[in-house]
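Q: Here's a chain of 496 amino acids. Please give me its 3D structure as tokens.
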Amino acid sequence: MRHRLIVPGAIAAASLLLAVPASAAEPTPGAPGVGDPYYPDYGNGGYDVSHYDLRLTYQPKTDKLSGTATLLATAEQDLSRFNLDFALDVSEVRVNGKKARFKTSGAHELEVTPAEPLAEGRQATVVVRYHGVPSKVKVNDYTSWHRTEDGGVAANEPEAAWWWFPSNDHPTDKASYDISVAVPDGTQAISNGTLQSQRSRAGWTRYNWRSRAPQATYLATLAVGRFDITTAKTDSGLPVINAYSKDLGEHEGAARASVERTAEITDWLEGYFGRYPFEALGGYVPNTDTTYALETQTRPFYSPDDFADGSNTSVVVHEMAHQWYGDSVSVKGWKDIWINEGFARYAQWLWSEDQGEGTAQELADYAYASHPAGDPFWKVKPGDPGPENQFHRAVYDRGAMALQALRNEIGDKDFFAVLKGWPQKYKGGNAEVRDFVAYAEKVSGEPLAELFDTWLYQPSKPAAGADAGAASFAVKGTPEQPRSWKQIHTADHPRH
């Protein structure tokens, strides 16, 4: 044991000096949101998280989750108080080793008041101990935790973290992750990145997962249940981990025939988007009653429903395309969702072209002709659709039409240079629509503001024969539906 001589007055004064510089203004609370106009209370101001360490225990029989989350965060102002986004019950919070006061407010805010203010530029260690039954916790009348026969799954957009770990829940605050989960023997825990270790003791098995690359909170995932797990390596040596619920029934064959092609599809996508940006890949299919897929980083989530009509490589293309467009390069604000969905949809069009099931131009023609001028489809602006239309089909299909219009305008050479260069330029960061417009103009040397305004921001159907690429779309009648059309649209996902 180490003994210290304590001089109360001197220590108190020194602690205060270390916490807040003498010249600093009075510490103030961090904002309860990052200022995203779509979701004003998502994320928090005043700090940036660099790493999450989650040590969890989950009992599938009761759906009870308990855990300790350790966040490494740097103060971006002199902080008297800060918020975390979280919905489960909290038993204790410590900041830099000292107990902190905490209380809940709003729909999902955990207000933390540290024993001492945090100085701007200093890193703090925040430890939160918590517990709860995620499926029974409702925020705004819904839960993003999907209960299954043998466990539970966290996968949703734009929010999923509140039900299993405290966070700064907005894509602009990306971090690395260590996720350690103890589950009863015979049950598996699937998460992002690479499996570092797996150990069993006293009837429980602990799985330790690591995600090294910057990762948005909604892209973190956890699935606990009874899975059949397959492992392999890509030609370049990256680990491939896929998992399938053991009770998928008639969907199992189609799911495996699709998801097991992830490495092949990723290699194909590298030809368009450049080197794969992460250290692992794969996918998982739990037995949920959901109807959407989600681009959870390195290991996309797929619903059994995605394979209800048979194998579907197109949905795998969509979610793996997101690894570049949406995961590596994430939105600055949720209004920029086109950066995610328009490009993932266009990747499906390119796959269709490669598979001989309809060219990108034929798919654009069909999409354009399928919606008459008075269709509400054209009222949705992909560049700023509003939170109520964030996952509207127009964001996907009109968003992909915008890219076909760009391709027609600047030609294949410059277009594919843009597709590949963009995710390299913003790798690991965040960007907005206007950043993409500026980049496309720089690469092509052409003014493109009118084209993008027409396709992304005008609440009307681009006129046939007009500038901005519509002239090359089919305009007389409705062309034959491309063979890939139906399969492509199983990848769309509603918010809840």
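Q: Can you summarize the key feature?
A: The longest helix spans residues 393-425.
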